[in-house]
């Protein structure tokens, strides 16, 4: 009987029940929604939406790991760390070390270049009031050198530094394993973040998680809050011993992955500075925004991988053919909106002339006919097939289009480049495990102006012992080692010139261009900004300087 | 009834366990995070030391056991890239995702209800088709495109609403609409069909014979009953909205868990991927379980199905 | 489970067998959606004939030309060109091919797998059913897009990867619905008779169950085509779709989003194509459902 009732008229018996249930359900849903809207977990107050006077808001595609310690942060996160911390050695906008704004007021290298002494200033205070001493410097550097440290130049420093000693509260002595003439440079504000000085006692007190929740430094700005992957907010200190009183009360770095959203934000005034791709510069300039450019800030090039294997690109003629097939002028004009210059050999750009780069070398010509001829001579009259990797990079939004263009040019001389679309992680892993024989991939890196940095990069890219190399050529190794073991800067510069010419003649890589990095800003708020020639940051201290 | 609940509970736990194993294996298939963390010139030794420090060189079953035993205590390990406890990262972002999902659901309901009722009442007419088209439109356009276009229109041109991020209540409008529009079609269709079923049922026929005014029939009796499946589906939709908002989060720079897991996958951040997948799966499975139990309570036939 | 429950609560009469085309529905055949679908299929098949340009050869000096009715446009490129100088109309035409291909393959694999599992689960009942249902629950609780990205990271981006990702999500949806249908049909007299007569389970599934779920399957297929096309676009946006230079509507929209303010045509026309096609399939699927099996109306 019951069953009959159910089958025929399920509702009649349960109608009222359904109604009650429905209303209770609706009430529960409404309560749930209202509750969810009102609930904010402790410590997570709503971020201010109103425009504060003197609040500088930047919107970028990415800001590194957003963990404010050099051993936790990648190269791309250096920008905000320059505001938070003082470095062992200061730096100038042109990329040279400075005695004016670093913790060390002077330093000295021993005659054999294996002992460095740094004399620290007295009276530098961390944001919690404690004094910055050589102990903090020693501890910070040792943290950077630990195996778990992910600092960009940690491995290099580990190879160089033997030990660090504190001879008195304001004197630091570093001994190196081999002659190291560039140590001051490596630990300065203009290279990486390895020279940043963090407070040892506070860090050990609160632990790594406590520190990243509220970081303490001695720089012109102090930490307010941060959400990993989305936002970092800094607040100005009263007065910094080197920078004085900053211009802006707060500086907020925001991660906005989508470029059209960033552009919308600056148009509506929700952001004051945004990073954009080069193509969008003309239209934003036309709308009255100010564009600050780091001229030739990056160099772009493509690699011919694993040239020691039995692959077409192992032959110099093939590499030359590919270099002649690329119409760099056209590529620059259309892919980079003209905001780049062809370069002669990657990664030695125009900044490197002072470091020994050869300014007389001219970029390769555009000559597809000769390219086809060379291929025939090399034994590939009908071309060949290979793979080119395409992956998105937050610092180079044009990468996929550039790769397509290169594949297009190669196709015109008969080289079929299959585009393997992936992301950087996969490509990098393959490279480090040597799984790309004869393939092509492209990368960009900052344009280096200091000999030490340039040499280290060349070593990574071309010395047979490096995991990133595509060469196993004894003559090249010797040349590189001549520079790494030199004890005089002059010798290093001369060797860099020789290296430059060697790589150029060898068509070791496919250089594309030196590319400018534009930032669009609200001209009323940001009147002056020299983006400088420092590595991996935008000279953020100059940005916030009071004028 | 209790046996049914127990049975389903056990099955759900087993499903979660299986999923944990699956996501554990899958995330490790994506590659080696140390390759991405260390700088270019790191030596083989450095890599080995880092792997050891992260516990990645232990045999897989051991790693799995460590992960599982910690997970049931609420410790999901430390993010490899973010270098902080995963549970803290999730705690930072989950509330934003839930809030966005809740508002999106409200908007979806506000759109779906009138559309569904109109479509049911005017079944077969142009109005029915029109309502259907409006609802289906939300599923016929890619979400990211809708978001980008809405920003251009409402934020840039009209300046009525903010562009991105969190902040005020107004910051919710565009992303929640973009997110919610996607589920309007399903909801509307559900409401329409259950309204139609009720309106054609004996119960309603009886009410009409009794002389109950048509308005009361539709709005009081029919709609109330028709809402039940929609409400229960609402809970399921909420989980979809909370867990599947990656596109909206990217376009509107919304700090939700979609972005968290996306970054986790791209950087091979196993602990993050495992934790977020397990938590969201747990959420979805529990909601499904609750809904099924509710229905089993209402209709005994299902318990034996 | 919940679909079944919703249906069970409100069904006044059991589903008819065999499902018939309802006469009333036939009078309201949706001509416009059908027309659009036919147009798309023809375009996909006849792509080579319809356009002289190549969809993949780049020509940088021609980049971002506007459609012919705007200043700077010409009839040589009626809908303008994309950021690499390729004719937009050509890429749209070839894109039809790829988008429909991905859709069909994904649906055949995913739908086929899902339907098969659903039938088995629905017929077998008991433990098998519970197992399949829990597995589909698990599969459905995983955010779709992220699953696809995971696949792309492991396998590399390609048409195959996109099809796999789509199929791996679709099967669970199909399995659920088909299983619900199978459950209700299995209780019917003709199935019981077949069992008594000694037919093997396989025969029962193929001969008795499948024809009755076929309509549901058809409706589901037509409704999910749109979803697949949208998912492909979303994957392209996240960098996990079909890689360049292959034209797909999704990657064209994703590519064009940077130019929304300056070169609106790059993403507008593929967007229009997606909109028209998905809308057409959705409306057609709605009509199909009304025509074939109105008890499915709550899907």
Automatic annotation (TrEMBL), chain A:
Protein name: ABC transporter substrate-binding protein
Keyword Repeat included in the entry's annotation: no
Gene Ontology biological process terms, A to Z: peptide transport
GO CC, one annotated term: ATP-binding cassette (ABC) transporter complex
PANTHER family found in the cross-reference section: ABC TRANSPORTER SUBSTRATE-BINDING PROTEIN, PERIPLASMIC BINDING COMPONENT OF ABC TRANSPORTER
Organism: Tectimicrobiota bacterium
Pfam families the UniProt entry points to: SBP_bac_5 (PF00496)
Keywords on record: Membrane, Transmembrane, Transmembrane helix
Domain Solute-binding protein family residue range list: 101-424
Signal sequence range: none
InterPro entries from the UniProt entry: Peptide/Ni-bd, SBP_5, SBP_5_dom
GO molecular function: peptide transmembrane transporter activity
TM region(s), chain numbering: 21-42
CDD domains documented for this protein: PBP2_NikA_DppA_OppA_like
Automatic annotation (TrEMBL), chain B:
Major place of residence: membrane
Membrane topology: Multi-pass membrane protein
Subcellular location(s) per record: Cell membrane
UniProt KW keywords: Cell membrane, Membrane, Transmembrane, Transmembrane helix, Transport
One example of a Gene Ontology biological process annotation: transmembrane transport
Superkingdom of the source species: Bacteria
Protein name: ABC transporter permease
Organism classification: Bacteria, Pseudomonadati, Nitrospinota/Tectimicrobiota group, Candidatus Tectimicrobiota
């Amino acid at each position: 009987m019951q069953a009959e009732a159910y089958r025929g008229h399920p509702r009649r018996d349960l109608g009222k029940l359904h109604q009650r249930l429905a209303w209770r359900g609706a009430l529960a849903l409404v309560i749930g929604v209202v509750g969810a809207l009102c609930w904010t977990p402790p410590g997570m107050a709503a971020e201010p939406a109103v425009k504060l006077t003197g609040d500088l808001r930047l919107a970028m595609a990415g800001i590194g790991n957003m963990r404010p310690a050099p051993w936790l942060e990648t190269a791309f996160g250096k920008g905000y760390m320059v505001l938070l911390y003082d470095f062992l050695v200061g730096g100038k906008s042109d990329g040279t070390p400075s005695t004016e704004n670093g913790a060390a007021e002077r330093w000295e290298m021993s005659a054999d270049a294996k002992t460095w002494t740094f004399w620290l200033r007295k009276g530098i205070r961390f944001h919690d009031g404690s004094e910055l001493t050589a102990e903090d410097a020693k501890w910070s550097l040792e943290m950077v050198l630990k195996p778990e440290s992910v600092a960009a130049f940690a491995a290099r420093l580990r190879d160089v530094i033997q030990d660090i000693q504190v001879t008195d509260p304001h004197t630091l002595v570093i001994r190196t394993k081999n002659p190291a003439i560039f140590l001051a440079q490596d630990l300065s504000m203009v290279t990486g973040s390895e020279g940043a000085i963090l407070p040892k006692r506070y860090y050990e007190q609160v632990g790594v998680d406590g520190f990243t929740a509220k970081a303490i430094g001695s720089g012109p700005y102090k930490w307010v809050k941060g959400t990993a992957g989305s936002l970092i907010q800094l607040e100005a200190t009263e007065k910094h011993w080197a920078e004085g009183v900053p211009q802006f009360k707060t500086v907020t770095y925001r991660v906005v992955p989508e470029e059209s959203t960033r552009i919308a934000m600056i148009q509506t005034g929700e952001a004051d500075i945004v990073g954009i791709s080069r193509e969008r510069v003309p239209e934003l300039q036309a709308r009255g925004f100010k564009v600050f450019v780091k001229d030739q800030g990056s160099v772009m090039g493509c690699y011919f991988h694993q040239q020691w294997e039995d692959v077409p690109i192992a032959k110099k003629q093939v590499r030359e053919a590919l270099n002649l097939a690329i119409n760099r002028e056209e590529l620059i004009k259309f892919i980079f909106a003209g905001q780049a210059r062809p370069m002669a050999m990657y990664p030695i750009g125009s900044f490197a002339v002072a470091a020994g780069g050869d300014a007389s070398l001219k970029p390769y010509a555009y000559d597809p006919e000769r390219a086809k001829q060379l291929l025939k001579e090399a034994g590939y009259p009908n071309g060949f097939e290979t793979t080119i990797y395409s992956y998105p990079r937050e610092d180079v939004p044009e990468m996929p289009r550039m790769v397509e263009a290169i594949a297009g040019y190669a196709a015109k001389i008969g080289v079929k480049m299959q585009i393997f679309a992936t992301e950087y992680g996969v490509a990098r892993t393959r490279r480090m495990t040597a799984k790309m024989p004869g393939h092509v991939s492209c990368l960009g890196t900052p344009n280096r102006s200091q000999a030490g940095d340039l040499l280290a990069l060349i070593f990574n890219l071309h010395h047979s012992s490096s995991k990133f190399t595509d060469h196993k050529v004894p003559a090249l190794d010797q040349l590189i080692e001549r520079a790494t073991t030199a004890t005089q800067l002059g010798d290093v510069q001369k060797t860099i010139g020789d290296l430059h010419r060697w790589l150029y003649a060898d068509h070791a890589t496919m250089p594309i261009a030196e590319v400018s990095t534009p930032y669009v800003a609200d001209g009323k708020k940001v009147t002056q900004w020299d983006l400088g020639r420092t590595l991996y940051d935008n000279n953020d201290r100059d940005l916030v300087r009071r004028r | 009834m209790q046996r049914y609940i127990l049975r389903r509970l056990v099955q759900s736990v087993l499903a979660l366990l299986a999923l944990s194993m699956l996501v554990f294996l899958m995330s490790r298939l994506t590659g080696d995070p140390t390759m991405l963390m260390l700088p270019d010139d790191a030596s083989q030794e450095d890599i080995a030391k880092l792997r050891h420090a992260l516990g990645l060189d232990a045999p897989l079953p051991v790693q799995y056991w460590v992960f599982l035993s910690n997970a049931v205590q609420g410790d999901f390990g430390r993010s490899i890239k973010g270098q902080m406890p995963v549970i803290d990262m999730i705690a930072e972002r989950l509330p934003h995702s839930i809030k966005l999902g809740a508002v999106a659901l409200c908007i979806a309901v506000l759109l779906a209800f009138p559309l569904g009722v109109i479509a049911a009442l005017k079944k077969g007419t142009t109005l029915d088709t029109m309502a259907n088209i409006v609802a289906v439109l939300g599923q016929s356009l890619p979400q990211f495109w809708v978001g980008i276009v809405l920003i251009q229109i409402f934020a840039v041109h009209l300046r009525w609403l903010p562009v991105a991020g969190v902040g005020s209540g107004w910051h919710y409008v565009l992303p929640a609409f973009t997110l919610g529009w996607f589920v309007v079609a399903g909801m509307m269709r559900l409401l329409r069909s259950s309204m139609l079923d009720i309106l054609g049922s004996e119960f309603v026929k009886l009410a009409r014979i009794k002389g109950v005014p048509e308005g009361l029939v539709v709005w009081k009796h029919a709609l109330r009953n028709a809402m039940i499946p929609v409400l229960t589906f609402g809970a399921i939709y909420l989980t979809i909205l909370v867990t599947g908002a990656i596109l909206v989060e990217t376009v509107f720079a919304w700090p939700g868990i979609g972005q968290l897991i996306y970054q986790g996958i791209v950087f091979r951040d196993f602990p993050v991927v495992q934790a977020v997948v397990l938590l969201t799966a747990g959420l979805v499975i529990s909601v499904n379980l609750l809904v099924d139990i509710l229905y089993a309570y209402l209709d005994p036939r299902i318990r034996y199905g | 489970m919940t679909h079944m429950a919703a249906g069970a609560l409100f069904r006044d009469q059991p589903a008819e067998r065999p499902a018939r085309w309802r006469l009333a529905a036939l009078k309201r055949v949706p001509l416009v959606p059908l027309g659009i679908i036919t147009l798309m299929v023809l375009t996909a098949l006849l792509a080579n004939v319809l356009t002289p340009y190549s969809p993949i050869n780049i020509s940088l000096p021609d980049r971002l030309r506007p459609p012919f009715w705007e200043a700077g446009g010409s009839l040589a490129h009626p809908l303008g060109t994309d950021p690499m100088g390729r004719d937009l109309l050509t890429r749209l035409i070839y894109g039809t091919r790829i988008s429909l291909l991905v859709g069909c393959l994904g649906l055949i694999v995913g739908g086929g797998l899902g339907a098969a599992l659903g039938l088995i689960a629905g017929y077998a009942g008991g433990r098998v059913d519970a197992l399949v249902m829990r597995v589909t629950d698990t599969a459905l609780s995983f955010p779709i897009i992220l699953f696809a990205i995971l696949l792309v990271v492991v396998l590399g981006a390609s048409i195959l990867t996109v099809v796999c990702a789509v199929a791996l999500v679709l099967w669970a949806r199909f399995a659920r619905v088909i299983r619900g249908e199978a459950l209700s049909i299995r209780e019917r007299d003709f199935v019981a008779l077949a069992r008594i007569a000694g037919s093997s389970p396989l025969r029962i599934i193929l001969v008795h169950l499948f024809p009755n779920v076929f309509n549901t399957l058809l409706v589901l297929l037509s409704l999910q085509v749109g979803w697949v096309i949208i998912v492909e676009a979303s994957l392209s946006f996240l960098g996990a779709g079909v890689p360049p230079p292959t034209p797909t509507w999704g990657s064209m929209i994703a590519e064009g989003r940077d130019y929304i303010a300056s070169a609106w045509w790059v993403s507008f026309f593929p967007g229009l194509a997606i909109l028209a096609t998905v809308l057409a399939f959705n409306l057609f699927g709605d009509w199909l459902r009304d025509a074939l099996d109105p008890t499915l109306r709550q899907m």
